[in-house]
Write a structure and sequence with these properties.
Helices cover about 60% and strands about 0% of the residues. With about 300 residues, it is mostly helical.
């Protein structure tokens, strides 16, 4: 057991399954070796460890035109992700995994997470604290914990509507954001790869893509975007709404944790295919890198439309 559980990513859940006899030393050792490979080959992908665009963005030096270009491209990715998320639900191999995928999809569409620990979100604090709500999330519209099961749907809780609020201060309206026609080639390639991989009919590939997407999202780029936007808001665009970015920065660690729990289940399934898992993960990380590389190329080239 000392050998099997030495790996830093082996969770107490796995250790308990080992102690109870549900898993053998050999199985847990194999899982530890698999996690070593995940850490080496996936979690150190360059787009996770060194995103040049978001590193530049965090200093808040983007011009209004550069910021509008970023928001427009991000809105295409965010809105088109709904298609990939729906495919993930449709193609899920088990009811449990279908429900896990629905948690993400329905929250994207505007169903607010309902806490199940008996606690309630803090009450709204009135119009005088609109800036605080924007930074921390309006409790009437957001929650970072719980489940969509029994949650309240609100149009204004849809993530795309939060992005519309970001665009408003930049002169962007509903017809300027979110559609494929607004996307650059690199953005559309990213969207198409998400549908092909994250929403794949082969759940072994989809599992790898999902794991990679959630761990990319939890790796810090949201913080760099938030830092840059808050600097811009405080120095020159006080009407800029940033709730979309601050909320995602807070919630993505929860998503990554859920993905790790799911991985702990599927790894020990006889159908698990390590090769397909890494295929889905690597290919989606390359597509993510292409999106950010495209934004960085546009920035250096002065492209803002």
């Amino acid at each position: 057991m000392a050998t099997a559980t030495h790996h830093g990513l082996i969770s107490p859940r796995i250790e308990e399954r080992l102690r109870s006899g549900e898993l053998t030393d050999g199985q847990v050792e194999a899982f530890g070796e698999f996690l070593d490979r995940v850490e080496r080959d996936l979690l150190h992908h360059r787009i996770i460890t060194d995103n040049a665009y978001t590193r530049w963005f965090r200093d808040g030096r983007a011009t209004d035109a550069e910021l509008a270009h970023f928001v427009r491209q991000f809105s295409v990715f965010s809105n088109q992700f709904l298609v990939a998320a729906l495919l993930r639900v449709i193609n899920a191999p088990t009811l449990h995994q279908a429900r896990a995928a629905k948690e993400i999809l329905m929250n994207e569409l505007g169903v607010i997470y309902r806490r199940t620990d008996g606690q309630q979100a803090a009450p709204a604090r009135g119009d005088a604290d609109e800036d605080a709500k924007d930074r921390e999330g309006d409790p009437d519209l957001v929650s970072t914990e719980g489940t969509v099961d029994g949650g309240l749907f609100r149009f204004r809780a849809a993530h795309f509507e939060w992005l519309l609020a970001v665009g408003e201060a930049l002169g962007l309206g509903f017809d300027d954001m979110g559609k494929r026609r607004h996307g650059r080639d690199y953005t559309l390639h990213f969207c198409d790869e998400l549908q092909r991989l994250y929403g794949s009919e082969d759940d072994r590939i989809a599992e790898g893509a999902s794991f990679a997407v959630e761990n990319w999202a939890a790796a810090g780029f949201w913080q760099e975007l938030e830092d840059g936007l808050l600097h811009i808001k405080s120095t020159r665009l006080p009407r800029l709404k940033v709730a979309f970015f601050t909320w995602h920065n807070r919630v993505e660690a929860q998503h990554a944790g859920h993905t790790m729990e799911e991985l702990e289940t599927v790894f020990f399934d006889p159908r698990f295919d390590e090769g397909k898992f890494f295929q889905g993960a690597r290919e989606v990380l390359d597509a993510i890198a292409g999106f950010w590389d495209g934004l960085e190329y546009d920035r250096r080239s002065g492209v803002t439309g």
